[in-house]
Design goal:
It comes from Prevotella brunnea. It is globular, with a radius of gyration of 15 Å. Strands 1, 12, 13, 14, 15, 16 and 17 form a 7-stranded antiparallel sheet that branches. The protein has a 6-stranded antiparallel sheet with strand order 2-3-4-11-6-9, with no helix packed on it. The model has no long low-confidence stretch (mean pLDDT 95). The chain is an all-beta fold and 171 residues long. The chain starts with a strand and ends with a strand. It is 0% helix and 60% strand.
């Protein structure tokens, strides 16, 4: 079990705010080169409107963890829930409106990979194939260890969590 503290996140500035990279695989890959299989991040959004970058060949999940976030796809508005990750294709033309200072959680992955994302509370997983990344939405415990809000945990195998987290299953 590896705890990834917010102070360990790789940060980058973009025109809408600051993005914090929690996980990327392979480790030698980069967002700019578009040579990753999966990238997990959380952004602090300073701008109240933005246009999403094209990630053709990838799928995306996003959810707000603080503030409000509304996506616009094909002229239709989707007000996102902090309890239900929103999935969409990386090649879709997406615009967003959000509250200033909103924080989101993003997963971008190659379309052919079986990645799943869900929000859950107080669960015990008997077994897990591959790896799992947990993102704490409040102070939680994972396998009895305290984890601060917005810190992450990377683990393999069985685990127990008390508190509200985003669970990303990584193949």
């Amino acid at each position: 079990m590896k705890i990834i503290h917010q102070s360990d996140y790789k940060t980058n500035t973009w025109k809408g705010g600051i993005t914090r990279e929690l996980y990327i695989n392979p480790e030698s890959s980069s967002l700019n080169a578009r040579d990753f299989d999966i990238r997990i991040s959380s952004a602090i959004i300073d701008s109240t409107e933005s246009v999403f970058s094209d990630f053709t060949g990838y799928q995306r999940y996003i959810l707000p963890v603080k503030g409000s976030l509304t996506l616009f796809r094909n002229g239709k508005a989707y007000r996102l829930s902090p309890n239900a990750p929103f999935r969409f294709s990386g090649d879709e033309a997406i615009k967003s409106e959000n509250s200033k200072g909103a924080i989101d959680f993003n997963v971008i992955f190659r379309a052919e990979l079986p990645v799943s994302v869900k929000v859950t509370s107080d669960e015990h997983y008997e077994s897990s194939t591959g790896r799992t990344l947990l993102f704490a939405l409040e102070p939680v415990t994972v396998n009895g260890k305290p984890i601060e809000c917005h810190d992450a945990v990377l683990l393999s195998g069985a685990f127990a969590v008390k508190g509200r987290v985003v669970v990303v299953s990584i193949p």
